Amino acid sequence: MSGFLEGMRCSECVDWGEKRNTIASIAAGVLFFTGWWIIIDAAVIYPSMEEFNHSYHACGVIATIAFLMINAVSNGQVRGDSYSEGCLGQTEKPIVYPGIAVFFQNAFIFFGGLVFKFGRTEDLWQ
């Protein structure tokens, strides 16, 4: 979304730089609210467990916790700009493979699910 507002035709008329954080925060809040509004609406319309299994709320709860965890870390900390030396000193050679392994595990599971869902024909189980 970093280049979203710069591509607008009237970007010379309005200084989006100062309003970018406000617009992004409002857009994220509206999307977050809309997601929860839709699932709460479905739970109210279909209250019985036969029509709508309420264990499906776990996906939204986990996504909300992930949303909070992602926003608890600043971009400067992710890039490594905010620390020059911590209480344990600087690390010379960080261990990165476990993080890469977790990323690739989730990426392969995600893409495997996509291939399984959309790559099969409908008559596979017949």
UniProtKB/TrEMBL annotation:
UniProt KW Transmembrane keyword: yes
The organism's place on the tree of life at top rank: Eukaryota
Q: Where in the cell is it found?
A: Membrane
Enumerate the transmembrane spans: 26-49, 55-74, 95-116
The record ties this protein, via InterPro entries, to: UPF0220
Pfam families tied to this protein? UPF0220
Q: Which UniProt keywords apply?
A: Membrane, Transmembrane, Transmembrane helix
UniProt membrane topology term: Multi-pass membrane protein
Sorted alphabetically, the Gene Ontology cellular component annotations on this record are:
membrane
Name the principal localization, coarsely classed: membrane
Similarity comment text for this entry: Belongs to the UPF0220 family.
In Swiss-Prot or TrEMBL terms, this protein is called Transmembrane protein 50A
* Source species: Chinchilla lanigera (Long-tailed chinchilla)
